[in-house]
Amino acid sequence: MNLTPVLTDTWDKDRSWRLATYERNGGYAGLKKALTMEPGALVQAVKDSGLRGRGGAGFPTGMKWGFLPPPDGGPRYLVVNADESEPGTCKDIPLMLASPQHLIEGVAITSYAIGCDHAFIYVRGEVLHVYRRLLNAVEEAYKAGYLGKNIQGSGFDLDVTVHAGAGAYICGEETALLDSLEGLRGQPRLKPPFPAVAGLYARPTVVNNVESIASVPGIVARGADWFSSMGTEKSQGHGLFSLSGHVTRPGQYEAPLGITLRELLDLSGGIRAGHELKFWTPGGSSTPIFTQAHLDTPLDYESVGAAGSMLGTRALQIFDETVCVVRAVSRWTDFYAHESCGKCTPCREGTYWLKQVLRRIEAGEGQDGDLELLVDLCDNILGKAFCALGDGAVSPVTSSIEHFRAEYQAHIDGHGCPFDPSASALFPYTPKTRTPGALTGAGAGGHR
Amino acid sequence: MTADPQAATKTGYDAETVASLTADATAIMARYPDPRSGLLPMLHLVQSVDGYVSRDGILFCAETLGITAAEVSAVATFYTQYKRHPNGKYTVGVCTNTLCAVMGGDAIFDELSDHLGVGHDETTDDGAITLERIECNAACDYAPVVMVNWEFFDNQTPETATALADQLRLGDDVVPTRGAASVCSFKQMSRILAGFPDGRADEGVGAGEPTLAGLAIARERGWTAPDAPAADGAADGTAADGAAAGQTSPPVGTPGSSAERKPATSSDTEVGKDKKPGEDAK
Predict the structure, then answer these.
(1) How far does A290 lie from chain B, in Å, by closest CA?
(2) Which candidate from A55, A161, A252 shows the least CB-CB separation from B211?
């Protein structure tokens, strides 16, 4: 399958982030065309294109827009979720660094389509230069008349505020993001009501991922048919596939949905020399892990789902045979325990106990029955919290036990980890040993 | 609700500081329909003055927004970028989430921790560096990653990271792999995160090699996205211009596919209800 650069197409240009560069390469043709169309026709075009949310959930974007209630004279908001923090996911941040105008044009078109005159971009606070580029892109767009009052003489007004978060994975969950944007702790809301009905300031709100919104200008300029000519029957269009880990040439590969990992590995030079694939995530750490058996699974929503995982954010984290699956999952679990917002007891307490049990298995202090305990804990978290963070936390645990139960058991039976952590690093080093029982990477304090 | 700068304040700030903070806070609140939305940038703002979220900073936010100090503290303690004690001039964050950790992040953290004599969230005696284990920072294709004041230092090793730390402690400028031409201080960074740019957006690269990996192959092999149907000879990056006159296409896909189906049941209209486990976490 050939790669299809659309969003990435300007990234190798000189000063790719500047408005002038974007315009020279066809930028803002979509907005100019959109402003001549009826808003309803734009919503229909995006529905027709088959574009589905690129932030992980895969919900049809046009349908999400269509859920807004009829205008009642009050404000309606577009909020762009640029809080990219799912482990392994690294597509929106490079997009906004290289070509922020792609997103700004998409924001303008989407706002026009849904009747919004104040849009927000919520970007995580831990990417300083991306924030600089976004602020600058918005300023350039105002000066050029793509934002502000009476855009391109159309009578349409739009203000855009770029808002920096402050370090919280949970704010990638759309209702937690809205609470955070309202100046509160970022905790998910009970749904319904959904943001389409009562979102930001309890007003009708569309929350979309960066890549989803950035895909809109192309759909408008080139047509829904053009977009849906790429991809599979139900997973249409182009998407960024982010390869990381033990591959020869990690990076961003923009391809039609439905490409396989085998094809992507061919393009990226394969697994690092002298090694072989052990396990991988199709869409970030919250998606159940895959193995060599899934090399030919088409990476589209339906096929990945049918194979027992989720397409998620197309964050393909590749691990070779040197990587201890217990160490990998234990570390992801540390992450979920750290990032659980604490609102729901099953997630808050459950991730804490998952972390304790996984750490003791990794440290060689696992007990018989620990695997059953882990599975039982997962069962008490899955589906029992407001949002999907808890569900995401159990995915790596249950899927890794399913695929690598013997490896877990070996840690328990052998009272330790049979892997050399330095073998998976990209450079040679001698692991430090200090506090007895301390895990690798524990630092001078030897914390557990 | 906005406090008059001349009004009595419980903060220990002098009049000049209060006046300048108030002017900035007013500008922040003006960006939002509801001033309370300005709390996160306002907390970044007080960090740009005090180097952490101080007691005075919390009181200032509370007085400005007309909420209680407890309400401000509740927010400040939720987010990891808000520091509860004075931060070093530079936050050095080593990604030790799974992918970076196994690729060498653990070794880098251990080495830096030994080298600096501090652990996670501790600051060196000279006040130069606060060391942190950080979570995934969306640069996995550049693993292992180190962030200095949230600028990218890609593809690190224990040697490059300790050399970087030494430079920072000597007060030398350091240059991120993808970022501004040099790393600014924690306080300067906090001011930018409050939404006051420093005019350095044009510094640095647009993309590193991994970001362009797929595009480079496409260029080499002459691969492009398909031409727009209505365009005559539109190709490459100019397709968008050529296709601007194209018509909106009729619906495609099979009847009953998710892209086609009209909302019918309540679960169709309750957005997100049909999400599968894990899908919503990002």
Answers:
(1) 15
(2) A252
Are the beta carbons of B253 and B267 closer than 8 angstroms? no
Inspect the interface and report whether the beta carbons of A194 and B247 lie closer than 8 Å: no
Query: What pLDDT, on the 0 to 100 scale, is given for residue A448?
Result: 43
Distance from the B157 Cα atom to the nearest Cα atom in chain A, whole angstroms: 7
User: Domain extents for chain A?
Assistant: 19-223, 238-320, 325-424
Q: Do B276 and A87 touch (CB under 8 A)?
A: no
**Which CATH fold would you assign to the domain B90-193?**
Glutaredoxin (3.40.30)
Instruction: Give A-chain residues touching B73 at CB under 8 angstroms.
Output: none
Q: Which of A167, A229, A444 sits opposite B113 (nearest CB)?
A: A444
Structure tokens at A147: 């934002």
Domain A19-223 in CATH 3.90.79.10: no
Residues of B with CB below 8 A from A22's CB?
none
Report the distance separating Cα A39 and Cα A34, nearest Å: 8
Whether residue B192 and residue A128 make contact (CB cut-off 8 A), yes or no, is: yes
pTM of the model: 0.91
Secondary structure (3-state) at A80: strand
Query: One-letter amino acid identity for A155?
Result: G
Å between B153 CA and nearest CA of chain A: 12
Q: How far apart, in whole angstroms, are the C-alpha atoms of residue B66 and residue B198?
A: 30
Distance CA A64, CA B223 (A): 32
Q: In chain A, what residues touch B239 (CB-CB under 8 Å)?
A: 26, 222
The string of pLDDT tens digits covering residues A144-181 is 999 999 999 999 999 999 999 999 999 999 999 999 99
Q: What is the pLDDT of residue B8?
A: 74
Chosen CATH of A238-320 out of 3.40.50.300, 3.30.230.10, 1.10.10.10, 3.10.20.600:
3.10.20.600
Of the candidates B201, B246, B247, the beta carbon closest to that of A135 is on B201
Q: Does the domain made of A325-424 have the CATH classification 3.40.50.40?
A: no
Predicted confidence band of residue B229 (pLDDT cuts 50, 70, 90): confident
Domain boundaries, chain B: 15-76, 90-193
Positions in chain A whose pLDDT score sits under 50: 445-448
- Please name the residue ranges forming H helices in A10-127: 19-24, 29-34, 39-49, 61-66, 92-98, 100-114
Beta carbons of B237 and A241 less than 8 Å apart: no
Summarised one tens digit per residue, pLDDT across range B55-90 is 999 999 999 999 999 999 999 999 999 999 999 999
ipTM: 0.96
Min Cα separation B174/chain A (Å): 15
Q: What share of chain A is helix, strand, coil (3-state, %, to 5)?
A: 45, 15, 45
Q: What are residue A259's DSSP bridge partners?
A: none
Over 80: is that where the pLDDT of B251 sits? no
Instruction: Give the residue from chain B lying closest to A242, CA to CA.
Output: B141
